[in-house]
Amino acid sequence: MKEPTRAPIQTPKKRLRTRCEHGITKQACRTCSPQTFCQHDRQKIQCRDCKGHSYCIHDKYKYICRACNGSSYCEHGQRKTRCAMCGGKSLCEHKKIKYTCKFCGGNKICEHYRVQYNCMDCKQNKLKDSLYTMIYCKETNNIN
Fold this sequence. Notes:
0% strand; 1 helix; little secondary structure
């Protein structure tokens, strides 16, 4: 009996970016493709002053502009990566942002089990350390 033939696994095609002789992608090289740069020495599509097509009428990147229904936002009005209803990739199993989840041990949780940038104890300790090093450097004349 013959085994059924299996179709080859298809992988998504990646757009290969060709590099120029300078080792940079061709679109980003000022020498190889000067036509892609404006008088402000930026890429034309990303120049806000030249009204590059990456910007919308609200002077924001198109993909993050809520008024223009940017591609980064879902139908619930949330960033796609952070929308619980859409199954955002930045959310953990506890429906919290992964790096700030206390239960998952996110990397932005401090030793006091708080989000680092909101922890007053960490801020005070950092301030004390910086003041100590500043005073110590003055006393030992190690100021640059």
